[in-house]
Design goal:
Keywords: Monooxygenase, Oxidoreductase, Plasmid. It holds the Pfam family Phenol_Hydrox. This protein is an all-alpha fold. The chain is 67% helix and 0% strand. It has 13 helices and no strands. 40% of the residues are buried.
Length: 332
């Protein structure tokens, strides 16, 4: 008996799911990001309105004053869905582990001056609580925002903020005794220089509009905080004094901030371009929260950099304003 094997090409009737095809076209194969994100927001046939908010459906676009014809337009240029996001963060975790091994094997922490180590802990340890606020706020955006392209990366961002808090904690334990964490908490709760920033974070925790919260946390505050602390303070102030180990052990945080800025700016650009009403609303929120964040960070900048603190903070604000201008938001 002989068996003849033949190859036969089976042409698929379509290249993706129906709900994805309406965005990318039925004849065009969709990426995993598109299939996991576009058109996946539940929009109808909800069982009942939540008893804790009967004015809205469970998923309700009207929770934000921003109006969009299609919330699927707020796409992430990084094209993160769960798979790509976890793989990217795993690679970064491996890199930071290698940095810890390098710093430990060369004894770089022990070679730091006590004054440099103490200043590093004084400035960075309270930021664990700022990152925790960022975690809570982005979880809120994920819960009450609308459209998977907007809410899914917000949840990834929430976990990234938690990771930033954990990296700062780990840095504190590498630089000093565990008591340094409690000292940072005490400063966050009682030191007058941290209270304006603490007030800012606590006020954002009760913001109701998820898009305004997105601006207040991810653009206005983080857009000034991270360049100020991990650029001007760590890279430009601590490293020249022998604190290279600090830059190595916190390398993930500024890298993540720069990467996340692509997503944040893309969201603002698309939402502002939708209508003049959106643009005016976003510009007002940006100016309000950016001004307040700059004021709240002023004492922190002085604590970190002394007389050069105000200039470094202004540079961070100028950079933020430039980002706003590039995405079409007039801050005047």
């Amino acid at each position: 008996m002989s068996v003849d094997l033949h190859t036969r090409e089976i042409k698929p009737l379509r290249n993706t799911f129906t709900h994805t095809a309406q965005y990318v076209g039925n004849d065009k194969p969709a990426s995993r990001y598109q299939e996991a994100t576009l058109g996946t927001q539940p929009t109808a046939n909800f069982h009942y309105r939540p008893t804790w908010d009967p004015a809205h459906e469970i998923f309700d676009a009207s929770r934000s004053a921003i109006k969009l014809a299609d919330w699927n337009a707020l796409r992430d240029p990084r094209q993160y869905y769960y798979g790509t996001w976890t793989m990217a963060r795993a690679r970064q975790q491996d890199a930071i582990e290698a940095s810890y091994e390098f710093v430990d094997s060369r004894g770089l922490v022990a070679k730091m001056l006590d004054t440099v180590r103490a200043k590093t802990c004084e400035v960075l340890m309270p930021l664990r609580h700022v990152a925790w606020g960022g975690n809570m706020n982005n979880a809120s955006i994920g819960a009450y925002g609308y459209g998977t392209p907007f809410t899914a990366p917000a949840m990834f961002h929430a976990m990234d903020q938690l990771g930033a808090a954990q990296f700062i904690t780990r840095l504190g334990l590498a630089l000093d005794e565990p008591g340094v964490l409690q000292a940072g908490k005490n400063d966050w709760l009682t030191d007058a220089r941290w209270q304006p920033l603490r007030h800012y974070v606590e006020d954002t925790l009760v913001l109701q509009d998820p898009f305004e919260l997105f601006i207040a946390q991810n653009f206005a505050l983080d857009g000034q905080l991270y360049p100020l602390i991990f650029g001007s303070f760590v890279d430009d102030h601590i490293v020249p004094q022998g604190g290279t180990a600090v830059a190595m052990l916190t390398a993930f945080i500024p890298e993540w901030h720069n990467e996340s800025a692509r997503w944040i700016d893309a969201v603002l650009k698309v939402a502002a371009a939708e209508s003049s009403d959106n643009k005016q609303l976003i510009a007002g929120w940006v100016k309000r929260w950016a001004d307040r964040a700059q004021t709240a960070l002023a004492p922190v900048a002085e604590l970190a950099l002394g007389e050069q603190g105000s200039q470094a903070l202004q540079e961070a604000r100028t950079s933020l304003d430039l980002r706003g201008k590039k995405v079409g938001i007039a801050l005047a």
